[in-house]
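Morning F.,

Quick status update on the modeling queue. The single chain you submitted on Monday has been processed. Sequence for confirmation:
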Amino acid sequence: MPPPLLRVAAALALLSSPLAAAAGADAQLTVLAGQPGAVINRNIYGQFSEHLGHCIYDGIWVGTDSPIPNTDGYSNAVLAALRDLHVPILRWPGGCFADEYHWKDGIGPAEKRPSIYNSHWGGVVENNHFGTHEFLNLCEKLGIEPYICVNVGSGSVQEAMEWVEYMTSDASSPMANLRRANGRDRPWKVRYVAVGNESWGCGGNMRPEFYADNFRRYNTFLKDYASGPGNRLYRVACGPAEDDYAWTDTLMRIAGPQMSGLALHYYTIPTGDWSKKGSATQFGRPQYFSALGNTLRMEELVTRHSAIMDKYDPKKRVGLIVDEWGIWTDVEPGTNPGFLFQQNSMRDAIIAALNLHIFQAHADRVAGADIAQMVNVLQAMILTDHDRIVLTPTYHVFEMFRVHQDATLLPVELTTPNLSGTLEKIPMVSASASRDASGRIHLSLVNTDPDGAATVSCALAGASFGAVTGRILTAPAMTAHNTFDSPHSVEPVPFSGATVSGDRVAVVLPPLSVVVLEL
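Structure tokens below.
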């Protein structure tokens, strides 16, 4: 059976039709507006910020004494860019870093905080000036839900329990009073808590049975201190690496009733080889096709892990949280290998859109996702250089797609040819649709073909067309990217390639394009 709410098939017969010969390739799309699906959880558009390279320091945080324009130590330019992005949730402090982080080192007067050695990422010494208060105050400034990852690998149950108390308790208790002594009277609203990170690897090299028992133990002592149902903790268990289906089965069997979410990590490695992943900007068609093929594995992973979760949780109470994803390339030449700084091209914008479409198609199970990472690391939204910033093509996809947040998924039926000249079966066109609270329908479309335009003939079943407006993100080359000297090479512009005729709309998608239409 096709994946839920999305049927994609190769339509080779179309390639021989007169219309296809004229336009290059055709896709047929029906939006089932009268058959609404699940609500697209806004947290699918979440971000990830780890103490890694210049994500935190010299990225989000420049310090109050910095010559870079800042507000309370946060870069003004980064703050402004994140506000426009409508970031729903932010994961911190890691990543592998989380299981070596001891939160009490990062509270109190900045000058009295002990420095720490970051053994995972670059071997740098950090001054701990960005800690719990700085992270939670950032989230508060921007209206972002904080997502805390507690230390299971080298920490203790007591440490995790006390951190939750420190952040969320309003009682006259030791940790709440310590928070008050450090300048914060009222508690923060912190709902999302991950119990460890990659416990199968850098988080402790645990067996699934051992981790499942640890999750149950930690879960017992992570208390709901704040009153009201909106303040109950959403506890996320460490899920599998990629296709470790046995891990998911074990976790759901042993700890499923205790968890709110299960994390999944999967990265797009362009070459499929972790030792030589390939350049972010110097690549050809074979590497482009390989990257897209590896990205589309996300559909299989989400489908198969969801099926295991369905076995133990048929009512879909537990959310699948893809809290690390994105393309991972070799670092930019001349940069610290441990800082994972990579450029961000039009290829990465296509990859981001394809992943988001997959998550939305599984909105009945996928309750969140966090791209890695927000600033200066891996598939970043923003790159910084002192007081200059660059908004990446991936940033622009997230900004364009924000219309899907909290909207109701509308199923689509899509028939599309696959790309030619590649062993991977890569659909030329990808689509996702939703209806927002005001009744507006938004349709996002991707043409993955680096060479040819695609014509999409779209029908609305259960609704009628009015005006059609849109925006497009495209570039003449798949390697196109923004730099500090040319920051506007790849950015959205108004789209005029949609034509309404009766009960259908014809959309001509240029090569390498991401389009969002409002119907």
